[in-house]
Amino acid sequence: MNFKQFCMTALAVVAGIFITGLLGFFGMIYMMIQMMLMSIGQQHPATESHSILHIDLSSEIVEREQGTTLMQQLQGVENNSISLNRLLDALKIAATDPKIEGVYLDCGGVSAGVATLMSVNEAVNTFRNSGKWVAAYADSYAQSDYIVASAADSLWLNPVGEVDIHGVGAGLLYFKGLLDKLGVDVQVFKVGTYKSAVEPFLLTAPSEANIRQTREYLDPIWSDVRTAIASGRNVDPAVINAWADSIIVTEDPATYPSRGVVTSLRYRHDAEQTLKAMSGIDDDDDLRLVKPSEYLNQSYPHKYLKEASKPDYRIAVLYAVGDIVQEGDEGIVGADMAPLIYDLADDDDISALVLRVNSGGGSAYASEQIWEALEYFKTKDKPFYVSMGDVAASGGYYISCGADKIFCQPTTLTGSIGIFGMVPSIEGMMEKHLGVNYSLIASNPNAAMGIIRPFTPVQRKAMQRMIDRGYETFVGRCAAGRGMPVDSIKAIAEGRVWAGTKAIEIGLVDRLGTLNDCIMALAEENSEGSYSIVEYPDPEGTWWEKLIMSNAQMRTEAIKKELGAAYPIYKTVQSLGTMDPVQARMPFTVEP
After folding, report:
1. What DSSP string runs through 216-254?
2. pTM above 0.90, yes or no
3. Closest of 340, 372, 399, 368 to residue 534, by C-alpha
4. Measured in whole angstroms, how far is the alpha carbon of residue 543 from the centre of its chain?
5. Distance separating alpha carbons of residues 196 and 200, to the nearest angstrom
6. SS3 content of the chain, % helix, strand, coil (to 5)
7. Which of 68, 185, 451, 564 has its CB 3.0 to 4.6 Å from that of 72, i.e. a possible disulfide?
8. Are the C-beta atoms of residues 475 and 395 closer than 8 Å to each other?
């Protein structure tokens, strides 16, 4: 290549880089403009008369309303997740709204925890007790759908559809065989016979202790679920067990109506025609369906706006949902939540705090930071209550234990007071599979306590001392928060998981109730008049936060789509190298 050709090539490369950067810059500007336009307030027309509250049970019921991602906004994709708090509010308000004729449960495989589903079932029952009707339809009912739909007056099923009722279970993947093949040895340090979160990395099946504790909380949860279903279908709870044991999903749907499983069999268009008659509109008119979020925007537009006029007594409702981590973009991030709690404590406009916890735990370090921030909040003489969702266990209980009052639901999983440490050793993988040998020359024998070589006996003892110390700290926090002797906490600790009703009996929780029950109790017991709530953190975020997050979100979505059912395995193995060494975490969640 002569000098002239070299110069031309170099200029072409520089020009290409410049043009690419320029296009990227204008692309970003375009996305920013699009997002700002989309963030402009939308107009919400008033709810029409003869409307039906339409609850689409085909996606996930989340703790609170989720903001749309950058790519969803740019592509015009709607976020179909259902906010539990707004759903319950919509049912409560619609019960006395003359414009709402009834509720339509459009079932299509909803995803939610048992406590969440039972909350919706209870709210639907309350709506029915107002004298209005509730109708449910499905091409096929998953059990999660049926837990909610069983509360309906009219339960319709496609003539060739199915109803799946099978009981509840707690499933977990075991990775011991995979790790052995990879040559990875997981070194575990723990306190608690029942602290079973480490078992998937050590065993190929659950231990006897874990099987025993799991059965002890599954049985009362299933009892509550089948009792609720039986009440809605007006049959004995034993009948629900019989349906589950007979594998009813495989049976002829023509037998369902006579047995009370459904009210009748009909196709969707027939169901919609019936809904028109029930709501008092003509056959040739469109159904006047309104989603819970739309309905609240139309009928109660200022409820969730921070800038609206509010009474003097303001309750901050802080959502703590997901895995507890110290740093990161998802879950309960200690580095973000602790400062937010300090700010709420120092904010003279905030009178009290309700912490809504739905977490199986995570980093013990991050849990301690959040616990300390909540203790600081209490020094300001402001009431602090906790409302537990599907699960508030291990680290989730750690951050809850100092509350003035703790509320849970009968099917909430809580407790799991215990911690563990887990450090993988990859020496076998390096030598056997990669052909890589490691050699260390150091001034001291413990200069390299990492993931390459297994710990020595001295190092193992040191790690176990640290875990023991962390456990004593956790137990002490619980004892002080609950006003119980340390020995009493230890008797119910050791990582053992409890269902909500039992948790009240043993003193881990104060009362049964929903998030709304918790808020109302705090207000009644501490305020002298009206009150308002302000929710934290902001689920939408600023446009630039969305822009920064979009790359990670797109990558995660692409991996999920590519791996499909194998994604949980990928996620678990990946977490081995990134999670904090000391964890306060429970493994199982109940699958409806």
Report:
1. HHHHHHHHHHHHHHHHHHTS-HHHHHHHHHTTGGGS-GG
2. no
3. 340
4. 24
5. 8
6. 45, 20, 35
7. 68
8. no
Q: Which residues have a Cβ under 8 Å from the Cβ of 249 and sit 6 or more positions away? A: 162, 163, 164, 165, 166
What's the confidence (pLDDT) of residue 305?
A: 41
In this structure, are residues 482 and 508 in contact, taking their beta carbons and an 8 Å threshold?
yes
Query: What 3-state class would DSSP assign to 420?
Result: strand
Low-confidence ranges of the chain (pLDDT < 50): 3, 6, 10, 26, 28, 30-43, 72-73, 75-77, 301-309, 543-545, 548-549
Tell me the C-alpha to C-alpha distance, in Å, between residue 364 and each of 327, 415, 471, 472, 584.
Answer: 13, 15, 10, 12, 5
Q: Residue 290 — φ and ψ, nearest 5°?
A: -135, 130
Look up residue 161 and give its amino acid: G
Please give the structure tokens belonging to residue 444.
């001291």
The 10s digit of each residue's pLDDT in 249-260 is: 999 999 999 999
- How does pLDDT run across 35-77, given as a tens digit for each residue? 444 444 444 567 889 999 999 999 999 998 765 555 544 544 4
Q: Helix (H, G, I), strand (E, B), or coil: what is residue 402?
A: coil
Separation CA 136–CA 120 (nearest Å): 13
Residues 374/386, Cβ–Cβ less than 8 Å: no
Contact 256, 149 (CB under 8 A): no
pLDDT of residue 300: 59
- Closest-CA residue to 226 (of 165, 163, 271): 165
